[in-house]
């Protein structure tokens, strides 16, 4: 049965994503109405620059007063695609107070202060959906929240930032250095003029916080996520990974501790074996590998950014929220009942690939091995290659050590002690090894 009174949608933001949301709402209006059971009406569009021409949008709907729009009282769903912490947070909580449900793509806000938003949604009996906040078009949060609600997720391992995956893929496939690959990503429009959020891992860390919270039914904030970007990754690291049958990816890793009593969330570059499904994720694509107790291993793959792909996720949420609205119900809210503490990086158990420049003389290997033993870190493989020193006389070597799994604190303590050895000229690179 089609209800004739339309559901009113307020759009906050009309940039790359918002304009695509408006376009799809118009071009697919009949299908969306049939799927929801009522037509959608775009009731207002809040923007910063009202004079900009916005094709397909009635100019009468444009306003710069987002607060008045969310306070109208007749809005069914507010779609927030402006990003950032404020004014987005106040607009969303005001929308709940005035009777609307909310669809948001705002990963930064959800990772920083999701608790405030969830509490406001619950207090007012409204929906807060945010599939587009993590990995763009890829259906991921709904499967975690709903399809896997009966299972126990133990690990989420993902490539959740397209820009950095593009850079690392270029470094791997063409031998380009970091700066050259970043320039290419910028020229192609993947990297922004200020690429800090992507290359320093902030964007991926926000997504890791959201994923960990949903996967483990607990609350994880951006500050809980250990974060390292990829600006230090060199061509030599990539070549070294290749020699080990690995590639380098910027990974978001969320894990439940072996004893089940805590969780961790981290973002850093890591070597993964070429045989791992994430190794074949090329260009700016995203992919997330989920390990659940009963389901086993699942992989979600697709475009993680861009106007239309992100709008697809927003529209999916909009349909779901509107269906709930018509049924006078709400979908699942925040599930944080486990209240598991988030452990620090020091407690994460992982493997290191360490590349050292050492003196090539008797006893050096034994000295290095002793440092590992003193820190209770077991060595898996050692590869040494002699090379000439700066005067061409030899007597130096590159030593590549790959460890077995050990707490990160023990591994970083080992590296600190290695740096103090006279025979260690320098630590050329350190990278974690994951996905085995
Ligand atoms: N800048 C992000 C990326 C997309 O490169 O994947 C938005 O999260």
Automatic annotation (TrEMBL):
It holds the Pfam family ACT. Catalyzes the conversion of L-aspartate-beta-semialdehyde (L-Asa) to L-homoserine (L-Hse), the third step in the biosynthesis of threonine and methionine from aspartate. Transmembrane segments: none annotated. The keyword Amino-acid biosynthesis applies. Its EC number is 1.1.1.3. It comes from the Bacteria. This is Homoserine dehydrogenase. InterPro entries: ACT-like_dom_sf (IPR045865), ACT_dom (IPR002912), Asp/hSer_DH_NAD-bd (IPR005106), HDH (IPR016204), HDH_cat (IPR001342), HDH_CS (IPR019811), NAD(P)-bd_dom_sf (IPR036291). The lineage of its organism: Bacteria, Bacillati, Actinomycetota, Actinomycetes, Kitasatosporales. Belongs to the homoserine dehydrogenase family.
